[in-house]
Write a structure and sequence with these properties.
With about 375 residues, this protein is α/β, with parallel strands linked by helices. Helix content is about 35%, strand content about 25%. It comes from Eutrema salsugineum.
Length: about 375
């Protein structure tokens, strides 16, 4: 019985992150690189050569050209966020499935237009949050949603910081308002917000309040910020912190009534082939000495044959294959959690822009 052919993915843009995802497409067993596009043929050719693209991959000197390529099933779009709506909508209208870098849009209104185009044209959309596809993430959820081990969630804190160099802070698209105006919030903050939502089983918070002390560059782009969130019914709370101005840190700490979960490298694992996390349940202090823990944290390691970005591409290609070969409908889970993440990003920004007022997400 013949197996389905690999999903043919085109890369729209030569951003640095596209190097990592190009490798992931190479590694994914059910995907292949079919094409690369840039605004110049020379740049596209150089990118293809330097990243080991197969000889069969087409090289396009414009974004319009790759949209017309009938041998491309799907597009990975790592363009600046300000260009996402334009090119993702055009890709959907051409029947191309979309793997879209995060943040997915400048705001949720833009993303809603992208999703509407995808729904009308029956194409799959997924954002590029790689760590969500690591097999460790499923293990985290097993513990978090086990009422006997973790209990009821009370608080989660997540942070992603990196001490960016002078060149990044002055020249990166992340530091320019006309390209990626959400800055650290849309980039590093996206990961912390997605982690917070995952721990809360993707239930949106009721309120979001940014912390005073947001740092912006001279162009007004956010380089560092934090925020708190509340879920009013059962008094859950969360805090996030993201920054381009602090030492590399990628943390999740989730605290329940019975257990605690900690991850120290959730965005990019310390090692590509395995990732760890710690849990403890019913921890206490020995009595009467009070000198040691009872039930101290235990470390768990999850191995993977594919790096997390290849797992992401493989899952995206699987969903596209189901649509292309079996007439399945697009999986709406992925755009739904993209939208929720974008909603919280928008709320943090709104709070910052309004002198750190509390923002309600009820009804959004």
């Amino acid at each position: 019985m013949a197996t389905d052919m690999p999903i043919r993915i085109g890369v729209m843009g030569c951003a640095e992150i596209a190097r990592k995802v190009s490798r992931a497409i190479h590694l994914a067993p059910n995907a292949t690189i079919a094409a690369i596009a840039s605004r110049s043929m020379e740049k596209a050719k150089l990118f293809a050569t330097s990243n080991g693209y197969p000889q069969s991959a087409k090289v396009h000197g414009s974004y319009e050209s790759i949209l017309e390529d009938s041998e491309v099933d799907a597009l990975y779009i790592p363009l600046p966020t300000s260009l996402h709506a334009k090119w993702a909508i055009r890709a959907a209208e051409k029947g191309k499935h979309i793997l879209l870098e995060k943040p997915v849009a400048m705001n949720v209104a833009e993303f809603d237009k992208i999703v509407a185009a995808c729904e009308i044209n029956g194409v799959q959309i997924m954002d590029g949050t790689m760590w969500a596809h690591h097999p460790r993430t499923d293990k985290l959820k097993e513990f978090l949603f086990d009422s006997d081990r973790f209990g009821q969630l009370k608080n989660v804190h997540s942070c992603f910081t990196v001490a960016a160099n002078k060149d990044f802070l002055e020249n990166s698209i992340r530091a320019k308002p006309d390209l990626d105006g959400l800055g650290a919030l849309g980039d590093a903050g996206w990961y912390t917000i997605r982690a917070t939502l995952l721990v809360n089983n993707f239930e949106l918070p009721k309120t979001v309040t940014a912390f005073p002390g947001t740092f912006r560059n001279k162009l007004g782009v956010n380089l560092s910020c934090g925020a708190s969130m509340t879920w009013e019914e059962d008094k859950r709370t969360a805090t996030i912190y993201c920054s381009y101005l602090a030492n590399l840190t990628m943390e999740i700490t989730a605290i329940g009534t019975k257990g605690t979960l900690r991850v120290h490298d959730f965005v990019i694992p310390f090692q590509e082939t395995e990732a760890s996390f710690t849990t403890c349940t019913n921890a206490w202090i020995n009595k009467p000495a009070a000198t040691a823990w009872v039930n101290p944290p235990a470390e768990h390691t999850v191995k993977t044959e594919l790096p997390q970005e290849a797992c992401m591409v493989s899952e995206f290609a699987r969903l596209v294959g189901e649509i292309k070969n079996k007439g399945a409908k697009p999986d709406l889970f992925w755009p739904s959690i993209s939208r929720k993440t974008q909603l919280v990003v928008d709320a943090v920004k709104e709070s910052i822009d309004n002198n750190y007022q509390q923002i309600s997400l009820s009804g959004r």
